[in-house]
Specification:
There is one protein chain. This protein is 41% helix and 17% strand. It is α+β, with helices and mostly antiparallel strands. It folds into two domains: 60 residues, Rossmann fold (3-Layer(aba) Sandwich); 119 residues, no CATH class. Strands 2-1-3 form a three-stranded antiparallel β-sheet, with no helix packed on it. The protein has a two-stranded parallel sheet with strand order 4-5. The protein is flat, with a radius of gyration of 20 Å. Bound molecules: adenosine-5'-triphosphate and magnesium ion. Adenosine-5'-triphosphate (ATP) binds next to helix 1.
Length: 200
């Protein structure tokens, strides 16, 4: 559950919005509708933690991961489709490294009664759980499946980002976000870049 409380944004003496209260539950799908300049992108940036509100607060549970697809963005033109999508698993690699270090530390420690030992065990178990959740199929298989679902052909996987149109590049970024399996996915006008088939 994510909570926005009395969120406000002012630019000088102009108020973009104020008094925004919202709770986003785990299964919620929310569409945000408003005219150009209403503050939709600004609100998403604040929820994503990229911008500070003038007032109010955003409260998220501990370990809550937010995926954010901006309305416009720079792409890594020199990387291939697959390279960009696979960046989603940087976290898996970091987790695996951390898990190794934790396992080693647990094996060497003897202060079984201490709080810090209990914390260590907890962290080890959390890291294991997250790896299980992410690592069902091989990471390459997962990336292929998601990219193909978004309309990429197998032969596209090794092509450079620069060879694709803006809409297709955004799809690669979307694939990366989906592969990261965040708790909350914020998409700023993603349908601008998708055709009807992909939207469905
Ligand atoms: N740093 C800033 N200083 C002053 N005004 C700003 C600043 N950042 C954003 N704004 C203004 O806030 C308003 C909201 O912009 P935002 O991009 O959030 O709107 P939007 O609802 O996403 O619009 P669109 O539908 O065009 O994407 C705009 O009028 C913009 O000019
Ligand atoms: Mg916008």
């Amino acid at each position: 559950m994510l909570h926005l409380t009395s969120l406000a944004v002012h630019f000088g003496d102009r108020t973009l919005f104020e008094g925004v209260d919202l709770a986003i539950g785990n299964k919620d799908r929310i569409g945000l509708v408003g005219r150009n300049g209403a503050g939709k992108s600004t609100l998403l940036k604040i929820i994503a933690g990229l911008q500070k509100p003038s007032g109010g607060s955003v409260n998220t549970p501990k370990e809550y991961r937010i995926g954010y697809l901006p309305q416009e963005m720079e792409h890594e033109e020199e990387s291939t489709v697959m390279e960009v999508a696979m960046q989603a698993f940087a976290e898996v690699q970091a987790l695996e490294t951390r898990l190794e270090a934790l396992t080693k530390e647990v094996a060497e420690r003897t202060d079984y009664e201490s709080d810090s030992y209990a914390d260590l065990i907890q962290e080890l178990s959390d890291a294991n759980e997250r790896l299980d959740a992410i690592g069902a199929a091989s990471t390459e298989e997962q990336a292929h499946r998601i990219l193909q679902g978004l309309g990429f052909k197998i032969t596209d996987m090794t092509r450079q980002m620069s060879e694709f149109s803006g809409g297709w590049k955004m799809r690669v970024e979307l694939a990366k976000l989906l592969l990261m399996q965040p708790d909350l996915l914020l998409l700023d006008e993603p349908t601008n870049h998708l055709d009807i088939e992909s939207i469905e």
